């Protein structure tokens, strides 16, 4: 279902997600890594955080067995992501 959204809907819209990875990619990764129940909970929490008042940024899926992601990337990592077009401007 997420792949269909990415292929048929998201691909035709301008990039608007304030986060990296995008919310749909985050949902795919969280479901694959944590299973349906926890993956869905993480995905819903991410969608609730993705709003006009959010600063956005890098928000990786937490490792298996954890609820929070690893620490925020350094300034040099952010610059590298910007150079690759993966960091919102």
UniProtKB/TrEMBL annotation:
<comment type="function">
    <text>Could be involved in insertion of integral membrane proteins into the membrane.</text>
</comment>
<keyword id="KW-1003">Cell membrane</keyword>
<dbReference type="GO" id="GO:0005886">
    <property type="term" value="C:plasma membrane"/>
</dbReference>
<dbReference type="Pfam" id="PF01809">
    <property type="entry name" value="YidD"/>
</dbReference>
<keyword id="KW-0472">Membrane</keyword>
<protein>
    <recommendedName>
        <fullName>Putative membrane protein insertion efficiency factor</fullName>
    </recommendedName>
</protein>
<dbReference type="InterPro" id="IPR002696">
    <property type="entry name" value="Membr_insert_effic_factor_YidD"/>
</dbReference>
<comment type="similarity">
    <text>Belongs to the UPF0161 family.</text>
</comment>
């Amino acid at each position: 279902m997420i792949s269909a959204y990415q292929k048929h809907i998201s691909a035709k819209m301008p990039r608007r997600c304030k986060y990296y990875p995008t919310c749909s990619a985050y949902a795919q990764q969280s479901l694959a890594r944590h299973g349906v129940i926890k993956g869905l909970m993480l995905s819903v929490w991410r969608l609730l955080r993705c709003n006009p008042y959010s600063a956005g940024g890098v928000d990786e899926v937490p490792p298996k067995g954890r609820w929070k992601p690893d620490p925020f990337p350094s300034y040099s990592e952010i610059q590298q992501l910007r150079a690759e077009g993966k960091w919102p401007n």
